[in-house]
Amino acid sequence: MAKILIIDDSLFQRRNIRKSLKAEGYDIQEATTGREGLEMIPTFAPDCIILDILMPEVDGLSFLRTLQAQGNTTPVIVLTADIQNTTRQECLKLGAKEVLHKPLTRLDAEKLRAIIITILDSVEEART
């Protein structure tokens, strides 16, 4: 069973994301800050991370910079309310696999599930 770490300071957003992924049977853990997410990675060892950008303590961009500096290649999907193209480009430059906007519509939730499946398939292929 694939493990997904959701990092978002909004309980509402975390619940929406969890709800949209629940049917897929993933092992899902949640963190409320980037700092908490970074602390969870060594023990939870997620196969994919869903990350918000605007958070207290360690924001999403700092989180991505830290992962990059650590050489951590866990795939990250950014979900953000920030619609600026510069933010999107920075996320991708820092290693994010995809940047989606929230709140998630039904269509966005389907796209998120498809992206996760593609990412997890490529992770599985890399392991074999």
Report what the structure shows.
With 128 residues, the chain is α/β, with parallel strands linked by helices. The protein has a single domain, classed as Rossmann fold. It contains five helices and five strands. It has a five-stranded parallel β-sheet with strand order 2-1-3-4-5, sandwiched between helices. Helix 2 runs parallel beside helix 3 (60-70). The mean pLDDT is 92.
Overall average residue pLDDT: 92
Q: Major sheet, described briefly?
A: 5 strands, parallel
Q: Please tell me how large the radius of gyration is.
A: 13 Å
- Named at the architecture level, the CATH assignment is 3-Layer(aba) Sandwich
Strands, count: 5
Portion of residues in beta strands equals 15-25%
End-to-end separation in angstroms reads 16 Å
Q: Reading side by side through the largest sheet, how are the strands ordered?
A: 2-1-3-4-5
Q: Structural class, please?
A: alpha/beta
Overall tally of structural domains: 1
Could you state the CATH homologous superfamily?
Response regulator
Q: What is the highest CATH level, the class?
A: Alpha Beta
Number of helices: 5
Low-confidence stretches: none
* Secondary-structure element series: EHEHEHEHEH
Helix percent reads: 40-55%
Shape: globular
CATH topology label: Rossmann fold
